[in-house]
Amino acid sequence: MKNRFSPARRWSRRSIKSVLLTGLLLLSCCFVLMGRSVDAQTAPSPAAAPAVSTIPLPAAAPAPTVDPADPGTYVLEFNRSPIVGNRLRLDGIYDESRLAFTRPRNWKPANMQVLLKFRHSPALYASRSNLTVLVNGTSIGSTPLNMPEGQIASVAYPIPPEIIDDYNEIVVAGLQNNSPTCTQDPFDPSLWTEILPDSKLVFKFEPQAIPLNFSQYPYPIFDKLSLEANRIALMQPQSIDEAWLTAVSRYQASLGRIADYRVMETRLVSKLDQVEENERLIVIGTPKSQSAIASLKLPIALKDGKLLDAQQKPLPDNAGLLVMTSAEQNKVPVLVATGNSEAGVAKAVQFLVQERDQQIGTGQAIVVNELTQVASPPAREWPKYLPDRDRFTLSDLKNPDGTTPQDVTVWGSHAPAYEVDFRALPDDRFVPGSTMTLRYSYGPQVNPLTSLVEVKIDNVAIGGDRLSSINGGENEELQLNIPPEAVKPSSRMQINFRLDPRERRSCSRVTDQQLWGTVHTDTSFDLRRENLAELPNLKLMQFGYPFTAPQDLSTTAIVLPDQPTADDLLLLLSVSERLGRLSQADSIQLTVARSGKLSEDLRKERNLIAIGTQANFPYPEVFTADAGFKLGDRSSRQWQQSQIQTLPDPEGLVKQILSPWNAIASCSRSAPKRPTASSKCGN
Question: pTM for the whole thing?
Answer without folding.
Answer: 0.86
